[in-house]
């Protein structure tokens, strides 16, 4: 009996434990199910917020393009308002796609190409939805555009210089560039806008002291008669920028010199003075800086027989000019042949060399002699004789038969030098006949 009671008690406790375990298991299952439901709801909300297949979103300030498919410089009609208009567009699509879009991704436009009437017109807006979306709605549906007749004008271009200084001994012509890549620009657009335009201008900001010639490129802007800048998106320029070049000038005293053909005066003590000895000139900085003097003439010592003054034109290089425009533009070269003597020597006709006689012709010297002047050191000149002189007559260019004068040359048989050289220019009378 006692064993039976114990067994019953054990069985009762076992059954009680099974019931308790079963209850605990059911509680855990409900908690798991509740967690799954909550997770599913969260996932659903997440998916709907990120990639809903039927989301909508409104985009504000979508720009409206005004399409006018006409040649930019063709005389027709053009819009003078409308560009810059914006609308609100509502798109429908997946949330993920909509989140990646902005107002600039939406294409909105009105086409005014077919309009033939000036004045105010109302046009329907066309909206193109980005890929993966459709247009749900947009507002406003129409915009007003003013149309005007298109024209074309040509206006002069000028250059303005700002933000610079220039040394007192330098100068430049601010109002006139040395060169301008665009002297005039064509402007097309509405006639009502074109009427306001007086000129085009480029502005160069130099940023410091100007000591040499320069050039620069800058955008062109349009100005009215009052010099105010015209800003209009409806105007088109044939050139949007220009390049201007400026020459910067300076002044300096430029010494004057002469050159010598043979260099005899450098060796025989001849004195050459120039009046004025220098001149104040103005020129482009780069060119004037390279000039240390200016040669006014090349003297041929064999053509100058005695002391005297010779006048030459100044003939300054291109781009160089006298500061005083009224200053005399000639220079005197004074020659004093103090270091040499002059001797006249009579050369008989039979010592004159006749060369290059034309075929079939005969040339006869009509003079008995020719007097040749020789200059040189006093001792050397005193010993000269006629046979020391060579006189040559080149008759290759004689014309028809008859008496005529030809040029002849004279030189020392042993060669000219600073000590002894023939001077002067000579002619000789000859007779040309057929050779029998």
Task: Give a brief description.
By secondary structure, this protein is an alpha+beta fold. The protein contains 5 helices and 31 strands. The protein starts with a helix and ends with a strand.
Question: What key attributes describe this structure?
Answer:
436 residues; alpha+beta; RNA Polymerase Alpha Subunit, Chain A, domain 2; 5 domains; 10-stranded mixed sheet
List the helices and strands and how they pair.
Layout: H1 2-51, E1 55-67, E2 77-79, E3 86-93, H2 95-99, E4 107-111, E5 119-124, E6 126-128, E7 133-139, E8 142-165, E9 170-171, E10 179-180, E11 184-190, H3 191-194, E12 199-209, E13 214-223, E14 229-230, E15 236-237, E16 241-246, E17 249-260, E18 271-275, E19 278-284, H4 285-288, E20 294-299, E21 308-313, E22 320-322, E23 330-336, E24 341-348, E25 352-355, E26 361-365, E27 369-376, H5 378-382, E28 389-394, E29 402-412, E30 420-423, E31 426-434
Parallel strand pairs: 1-4, 8-12, 17-20, 25-28
Antiparallel strand pairs: 1-3, 2-8, 3-7, 4-6, 5-8, 8-11, 9-17, 10-16, 11-15, 12-13, 13-14, 13-16, 17-19, 18-23, 19-22, 21-23, 24-27, 26-31, 27-30, 28-29, 29-31
Structure explained in plain terms:
This protein has helices spanning 2-51, 95-99, 191-194, 285-288, 378-382; strands spanning 55-67, 77-79, 86-93, 107-111, 119-124, 126-128, 133-139, 142-165, 170-171, 179-180, 184-190, 199-209, 214-223, 229-230, 236-237, 241-246, 249-260, 271-275, 278-284, 294-299, 308-313, 320-322, 330-336, 341-348, 352-355, 361-365, 369-376, 389-394, 402-412, 420-423, 426-434. With 436 residues, the protein is an alpha+beta fold. Strands 2, 5, 8, 10, 11, 12, 13, 14, 15 and 16 form a ten-stranded mixed beta sheet that branches. Strand 13 and strand 14 form a beta hairpin. The model has no long low-confidence stretch (mean pLDDT 86).
């Amino acid at each position: 009996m006692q064993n039976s009671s114990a067994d019953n008690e054990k069985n009762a406790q076992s059954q009680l434990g099974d019931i308790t375990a079963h209850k605990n298991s059911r509680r855990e299952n409900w908690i798991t199910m509740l967690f799954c439901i909550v997770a599913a709801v969260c996932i659903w909300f997440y998916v709907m917020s990120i990639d809903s297949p039927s989301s909508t979103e409104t985009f504000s300030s979508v720009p409206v393009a005004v399409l006018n498919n006409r040649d930019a410089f063709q005389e027709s009609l053009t819009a003078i308002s409308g560009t810059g208009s914006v609308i609100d567009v509502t798109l429908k699509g997946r949330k993920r796609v909509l989140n990646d879009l902005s107002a600039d991704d939406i294409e909105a436009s009105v086409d005014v190409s077919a309009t033939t009437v000036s004045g105010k017109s109302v046009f329907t807006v066309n909206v193109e939805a980005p890929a993966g979306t459709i247009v749900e709605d947009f507002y406003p549906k129409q915009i007003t555009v003013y149309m005007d007749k298109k024209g074309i004008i040509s206006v002069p271009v000028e250059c303005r210089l700002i933000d610079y200084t220039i040394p007192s001994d330098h100068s430049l012509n601010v109002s006139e560039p040395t060169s301008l890549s665009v002297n005039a620009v064509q402007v097309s657009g509405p006639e009502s806008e074109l009427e306001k335009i007086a000129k085009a201008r480029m502005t160069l900001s130099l940023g410091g002291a100007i000591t040499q010639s320069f050039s620069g490129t800058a955008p062109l802007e349009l100005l009215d008669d009052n010099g105010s800048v015209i800003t209009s998106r409806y105007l088109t320029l044939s050139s949007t920028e220009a390049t201007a070049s400026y020459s910067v000038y300076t002044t300096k005293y430029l010494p004057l010199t002469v050159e010598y053909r043979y260099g005899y005066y450098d060796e025989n003590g001849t004195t050459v003075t120039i009046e004025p000895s220098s001149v104040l000139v103005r020129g482009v900085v780069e060119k004037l800086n390279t000039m240390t003097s200016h040669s006014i003439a090349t003297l041929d010592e064999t053509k100058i027989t005695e002391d005297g003054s010779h006048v030459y034109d100044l003939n300054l290089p291109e781009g160089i000019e006298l500061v005083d425009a009224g200053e005399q533009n000639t220079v005197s070269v004074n020659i004093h042949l103090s270091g040499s003597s002059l001797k006249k020597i009579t050369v008989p006709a039979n010592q004159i060399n006749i060369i290059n006689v034309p075929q079939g012709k005969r040339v006869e010297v009509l003079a008995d002699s020719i007097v040749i002047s020789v200059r040189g050191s006093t001792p050397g000149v005193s010993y000269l004789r006629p046979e020391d002189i060579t006189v040559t007559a080149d008759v290759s260019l004689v014309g028809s038969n008859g008496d005529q004068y030809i040029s002849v040359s004279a030189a020392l048989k042993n060669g000219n030098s600073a000590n002894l050289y023939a001077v002067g220019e000579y002619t000789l009378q000859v007779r040309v006949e057929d050779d029998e």
